[in-house]
C-alpha cells in the first residue's frame, strides 16, 4: 500500500529529473573572434570554447591557431599569419632593458592587430559565415573591439573575454569601478594599503592608461567604421555600450581586491582542467624516478629557451648540472650542447599535467599569467625571470605573497641562478605559502568553467541581460568619478565665499563710514 502511495511522488520526481536534463541539453550557437599573432592570448578563449562544446553548444573559433585534434561541436576558422613571430619575440628578449625598442615594438604589434582585423573581415570563410549564418552569442577578445559590430550584425549579445587581470579597458566596458585609492593599478602591483606616494603614482599611471586606451579607442573606431559602415550599423560608441558581460582571467584570492559590478565575472584558472591527462610514458618514468624531486623549466609558448644567449644558457645548464634533482627542460631544438646528465629536454611539454606530479618541487618560469596560475593551482614554488608585458606585474604580485623568487634576466649568472634554486628548494616558506595560496584559490562554489558557462547561458537566455548593465557605462571618466561634480562644488564654493566676502566687506565699510560720519558730526 505504501509503495502505491509513493507512485505519484516517484512520477513527479521522474518528470522533474527529465525536465532538468532537457534544460541542460539546450544548445546555443556561439562565435568567438580573437585574432592574434600569439597563441598565449588564446589559452583562456580556447579552453572556454572547448568546455562549451563538451556541454553541447555549437562553437566557432576565429583565430590563427586551430586545435591540434578535431573536437565535436568545435569549428576552427583559421587566419594564416604572415609574420615571423619568433624573430619578433627573440629581438624583444635581447632588448628587454631598451625602453625605446620596446615602445617601437609595441607600436608594431598594435599595427599587426589592426591589420589582422581587415584580413579577418575579408577572409572568404568568415565572409561566408557573416552572409549565411546566425549566432546566439558573439564573444570577442579584449583587444578585438574593432569587431564589436558583429553583435548587431548577428542580432545577438556580445561578451568580452580577457586573458589578463582587470584593467581599465576591460572595466570601462561594463562600468566597473576602478577604486584608484584602494586598488593598485594592474601595472603597479603595489601592496595594500598603499602609501600616499603610491596612491599618487597609482593615480598618474591610471590616468596614463586611460589616455592610451582612449587613443586605441580612436583607432578602433576607424577600423570599426570601415567594416561596419554608419549607414547600416550603430556608431562605435553605441556598440561599446552594448556589451553584456566581461569575463576576466582572475580570482580575488590572487590579491588586488576590487569591487565588481554583476557584469564583470572572474573565471581565473578556467584553462586548468580538473581531470588530468596521462603524461607521456618517458616523462612519467622520468618524474617517477626523481627520488630527490624534479624541476620544470619553461618560458611558455612565446619566449623559447633556444632564444637565450649562449652565456646565459650555459650558466643555467651548469647550475642545473650540479643538482641532485632531475630537470625537465623545454628546448625547441633537437640537440642541446652540454646537456647535464640529470636533464630531459622536450620541444613541447604538457605543463599543467607535469605541475600536477607530486615530485615537482620548483618551476622556473617567465611569469606569464597562465604559468603563474598553474603553479598557484598546484602549489609549486616559482623562480621567475620576466621579460616584458604583463610578466613584470604578474611577478610582483607573487613576490609580495612570498612564494616566488625573482631573477633579472640581464643579471643572470651561474652563481645567481644557483643561489635562487638553493633558496627556493631548501627554504620551506616558499612551499608552505604556495600551499596556503593554492587552498584559497581552489576553494570556490563552482569551477571557473561552470561559472563562465552559467553566465554565458544567462546572457543568452535573457537576450543580453540589459538589467545587469551599470549606468556607469553611459558616463565618461570625469562623470563616473564625480570629478565634474566636485569641480562644480569647488567653483560654487569659491564663488559663494567670494560673494560672501564682498558682502561682508561692503557691510563693514558701511559700518565704518557711519562711525566716521557720526564722529565727524560730533566734532562739528
Q: How would you describe this structure in keywords?
A:
49% helix; single chain; disordered N terminus; 524 residues; seven-stranded parallel beta sheet; alpha/beta; 11% strand
Describe the structure.
With about 525 residues, this protein is α/β, with parallel strands linked by helices. About 50% of the residues lie in helices and about 10% in strands. It is built from 19 helices and 13 strands. The strands form two sheets. Strands 3-2-1-4-5-6-7 form a seven-stranded parallel β-sheet, with helices on one face. It has a six-stranded parallel β-sheet with strand order 10-9-8-11-12-13, with helices on both faces. Helix 11 (about 310-320) packs across helix 15 (about 415-425). About 35% of the residues are buried.
Write the layout of secondary structure elements.
Elements lengths: L1 H23 L4 E5 L9 H12 L3 E6 L10 E5 L6 H10 L4 H24 L1 H9 L4 E5 L8 H4 L4 E5 L5 H4 L24 H32 L8 H5 L2 E6 L15 E3 L14 H8 L5 E4 L12 H12 L4 E5 L12 E4 L4 H5 L4 E6 L3 H9 L4 E3 L6 H11 L2 E3 L7 H13 L1 H15 L5 H14 L15 H4 L2 H41 L1
Helix pairs in contact: 11-15
Explain briefly what this protein structure is.
By secondary structure, this protein is of the alpha/beta class. The protein has 19 helices and 13 strands. The protein is 49% helix and 11% strand.
Amino acid at each position: 500500500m505504501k509503495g502505491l502511495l509513493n507512485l505519484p511522488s516517484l512520477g513527479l520526481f521522474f518528470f522533474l529529473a527529465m525536465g532538468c536534463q532537457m534544460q541542460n541539453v539546450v544548445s546555443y550557437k556561439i562565435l568567438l573572434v580573437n585574432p592574434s599573432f600569439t597563441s598565449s592570448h588564446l589559452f583562456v578563449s580556447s579552453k572556454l570554447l572547448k568546455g562549451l562544446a563538451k556541454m553541447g553548444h555549437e562553437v566557432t573559433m576565429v583565430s590563427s591557431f586551430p586545435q591540434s585534434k578535431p573536437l565535436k561541436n568545435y569549428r576552427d576558422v583559421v587566419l594564416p599569419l604572415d609574420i615571423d613571430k619568433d624573430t619578433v619575440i627573440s629581438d624583444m628578449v635581447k632588448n628587454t632593458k631598451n625602453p625605446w625598442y620596446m615602445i617601437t615594438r609595441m607600436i608594431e604589434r598594435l599595427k599587426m592587430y589592426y591589420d589582422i582585423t581587415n584580413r579577418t573581415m575579408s577572409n572568404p570563410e568568415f565572409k561566408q559565415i557573416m552572409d549565411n549564418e546566425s549566432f546566439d552569442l558573439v564573444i570577442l577578445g579584449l583587444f578585438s573591439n574593432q569587431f564589436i559590430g558583429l553583435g548587431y550584425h548577428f542580432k545577438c549579445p556580445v561578451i568580452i573575454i580577457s586573458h589578463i587581470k582587470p584593467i581599465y579597458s576591460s572595466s570601462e566596458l561594463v562600468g566597473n569601478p576602478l577604486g584608484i585609492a584602494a586598488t593598485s593599478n594592474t601595472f603597479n602591483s603595489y601592496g595594500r594599503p598603499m602609501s600616499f606616494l603610491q596612491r599618487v603614482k597609482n593615480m598618474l599611471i591610471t590616468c596614463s592608461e586611460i589616455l592610451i586606451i582612449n587613443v586605441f579607442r580612436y583607432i578602433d573606431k576607424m577600423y570599426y567604421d570601415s567594416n561596419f559602415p554608419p549607414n547600416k550599423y550603430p556608431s562605435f560608441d553605441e556598440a561599446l555600450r552594448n556589451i553584456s558581460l566581461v569575463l576576466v582571467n582572475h580570482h580575488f584570492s590572487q590579491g588586488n581586491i576590487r569591487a565588481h559590478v554583476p557584469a564583470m565575472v572572474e573565471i581565473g584558472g578556467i584553462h586548468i582542467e580538473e581531470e588530468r591527462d596521462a603524461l607521456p610514458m618517458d616523462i612519467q618514468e622520468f618524474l617517477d624516478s626523481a627520488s630527490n624531486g624534479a624541476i620544470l623549466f619553461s618560458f611558455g609558448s612565446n619566449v623559447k629557451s633556444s632564444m637565450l644567449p649562449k652565456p646565459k644558457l650555459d650558466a643555467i645548464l651548469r647550475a642545473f648540472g650540479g643538482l641532485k634533482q632531475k630537470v625537465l627542460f623545454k628546448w625547441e631544438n633537437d640537440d642541446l650542447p652540454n646537456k647535464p646528465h640529470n636533464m630531459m629536454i622536450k620541444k613541447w611539454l604538457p605543463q599543467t599535467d607535469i605541475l600536477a606530479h607530486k615530485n615537482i618541487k620548483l618551476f622556473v618560469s617567465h611569469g606569464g599569467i597562465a604559468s603563474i596560475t598553474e603553479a598557484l593551482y598546484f602549489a609549486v614554488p616559482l623562480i621567475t625571470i620576466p621579460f616584458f608585458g604583463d610578466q613584470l606585474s604578474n611577478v610582483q604580485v607573487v613576490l609580495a605573497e612570498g612564494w616566488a623568487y625573482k631573477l633579472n634576466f640581464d643579471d643572470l649568472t651561474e652563481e645567481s641562478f644557483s643561489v635562487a634554486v638553493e633558496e627556493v628548494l631548501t627554504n620551506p616558506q616558499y612551499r608552505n605559502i604556495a600551499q596556503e595560496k593554492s587552498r584559497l584559490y581552489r576553494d570556490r562554489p563552482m569551477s571557473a568553467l561552470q561559472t563562465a558557462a552559467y553566465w554565458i547561458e544567462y546572457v543568452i537566455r535573457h537576450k543580453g541581460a540589459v538589467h545587469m548593465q551599470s549606468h556607469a557605462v553611459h558616463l565618461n571618466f570625469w562623470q563616473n568619478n564625480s570629478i565634474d561634480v566636485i569641480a562644480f562644488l569647488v567653483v560654487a564654493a569659491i564663488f559663494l565665499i567670494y560673494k560672501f566676502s564682498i558682502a561682508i566687506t561692503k557691510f563693514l565699510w558701511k559700518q565704518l563710514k557711519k562711525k566716521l560720519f557720526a564722529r565727524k558730526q560730533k566734532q562739528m
